[in-house]
Request: fold
Amino acid sequence: MKYADQKAANIEQLAAQASQIETTIDPNNLFPGFGDRLNEMLDLVVPTIPPLFGRSAALAAVLGLTKATTGRWFNENRPPNAQTLRKLAMWLSTNTNRFSAAEMEIYLLYGHADKPTQSSENVDYKIYALVYSRCSELNVELGNNSIVEMAQGIEKLLKMWNITPTNADLETLHHRKLTAIDALILSFAH
Reply:
């Protein structure tokens, strides 16, 4: 088989896979259970806030947003943008002492599991926390597919440096290594 024919066959195969994935994803519910997990964390922070409109108003006041914006988080399972999600996670993390801010973001988006549900099976969830943390600091917003690919790339970098998420604090990576990770993140943003 010629190289060009092989390349065309690969592209066709990838297009078929993309079509199949697109039919299985509900674009209106990319993060199922987000509102429930947010309510669970709010139960730990301030259990006296009533579940319906009171929680939207309370979060709106804490984060400086409108009640309509925060209401979508509960009613439509639509999480906030990366910067607001980081602020929310920091506030929840500080008031619950349950997770670090980065782990709280992962929990709110994906739920409590060893690995996020939308990830590849072999990428540690702490790498996702690093991805979200760095994206937030770099003001980069990415789609879910890019985040999965980026996490896999970061995992390869960590393996190359003989660092595993379980034996090292990802927050204290040497500056040069963070620069390499940031470069990888920014390459996905363009």
